[in-house]
Design brief:
By secondary structure, the chain is α/β, with parallel strands linked by helices. Helix content is about 30%, strand content about 20%. It has three domains: about 220 residues, Metallo-dependent phosphatases (Purple Acid Phosphatase, chain A, domain 2, 4-Layer Sandwich), CATH 3.60.21.10; about 70 residues, Translation Initiation Factor IF3, CATH 3.30.110; about 55 residues, no CATH class. The protein contains nine helices and 18 strands. The strands form six sheets. The protein has a six-stranded mixed β-sheet with strand order 4-5-6-9-11-10, with no helix packed on it. The two termini are about 35 Å apart. The structure holds manganese (II) ion.
Length: about 350
């Protein structure tokens, strides 16, 4: 809540409003499924500077929940002295909204389950937030951990990202571990999961716009996990390879976007790549106007292509310093091995263009 959405500044207000709508969806599903608890595993707020008006709007959403709502401070809304959770506006929250800000297990009313919380008190940290639970299995109840950080999966976490042991569930004797931090829904070995951000935050983000319905029958039983769609906006990212011919590519992109269900709720990003021919500018502009005219919420064209003349100029420059490159470009055809075919020369030229563009990036 309170996402600044500077990447889509012109519709930031709509994007922020959508996040409230999606939160209402979470509570609506929770009510219709008659859940025992709603667990929000951190980063409810973008930061601790969010507007008080937003804090009150979020409360109004949570007030509609029939089940108790448990809120864990994450790294964005960490429990620092300046935390949003210390404000008067948050302290006036509805009676069914509880903070997970302590170490003692929190019983879920009407069930035999307890929540173990790992509230964050800083933005970054090297320690596993679940470590204090390890080896403490003295509770005869369904044990649900609630933590915020990154599962220690190679390439998917930074050392200061509150790394979480892959076997945290076994170490702490948990039935289930509710995780927050990653935006995409991710289930780890059936007993730990990121539900995902309830609404997508940016282009190219996968698995967000969801919540997770978690059913725990008894201590030790495998949880039953059911993804629930809660997002309201769709973020479509498409690529336009101008090297493949601008006209046909523009047609393909238009066709790809034709099936967008609700255009007023769809943001589109078109990213151009490849070596652009002379007619590319006009075609790209035409495509942008076309899409804007079709009623999409937001259309952004990002040019990552290179003008043909520019690439040719750079190639010619390189060719002056290399007889092989010059030969491949066909400027000194005599320097090539007699066996090199015209097709081979063209392929080499294309490869060189790509290398030049790669170096530019
Ligand atoms: Mn986070």
């Amino acid at each position: 809540m309170g996402l600044r959405a500077q990447h889509v500044a012109s519709v930031a207000k709509e994007v922020r409003r959508a996040r409230l709508d999606a939160a209402r969806n979470v509570i609506r599903v929770a009510n219709s499924q008659r859940v025992d608890a709603v667990v929000l595993a951190g980063d409810i707020f973008e930061d601790n500077l969010v507007d008080d008006l937003l804090v009150r709007e979020v409360m109004t959403v949570l007030e509609a929940s029939r089940a108790p709502v448990f809120v864990l401070p994450g790294n964005h809304d960490a429990l620092t002295p300046e935390a949003v959770y210390h404000r008067a506006s948050w302290k006036q929250r509805p009676a069914q909204v509880h903070m997970l800000d302590g170490e003692a297990p929190v019983p879920v009313p009407g069930t035999s389950a307890v929540l173990l919380a790992a509230p964050l008190r800083q933005k970054k940290g090297m320690k596993d937030p679940t470590a204090p639970w390890w080896g403490r299995q003295d509770v005869d109840a369904i044990r649900v951990g609630v933590a915020h950080g990154s599962l220690r999966i190679a390439g998917r976490h930074a050392p200061d990202d509150f790394p979480i042991a892959l076997d945290a569930v076994a170490r702490a004797g948990l039935d289930y571990l509710a995780l927050g931090h990653w935006h995409g829904q991710y289930i780890h070995e059936g007993r730990a999961a990121y539900a995902g951000a309830h609404e997508t935050t940016k282009f190219g983000e996968e698995g967000s716009g969801q919540a997770l319905l978690v059913e725990l029958a008894s201590r030790g039983a495998m949880p039953r996990l059911t993804p629930v769609s809660t997002g309201t906006l769709s973020w479509r990212a498409v690529e336009l390879d101008l090297g493949q011919g601008a006209e046909s590519e523009a047609k393909r992109v238009l066709g790809e976007l034709r099936d967008s269900a609700e255009r007023a709720k769809t943001l589109v990003r078109v990213r151009t790549t490849g070596v652009a021919s002379e007619d590319a500018d006009a075609v790209v502009k035409g495509l942008e106007d076309d899409l804007l005219g079709k009623g999409f919420l937001h259309v952004r064209v990002e040019r990552h292509d290179k003008a043909k003349a520019e690439v040719e100029g750079r190639l010619a420059e390189i060719a002056r310093g290399s007889s092989l490159v010059a030969a491949l470009l066909g400027e000194q055809s005599g320097a090539l091995e007699p066996g090199v075919s015209e097709a081979g020369r063209l392929a080499a030229r294309r490869l060189l263009s790509e290398l030049v563009m790669e170096a530019w990036r």
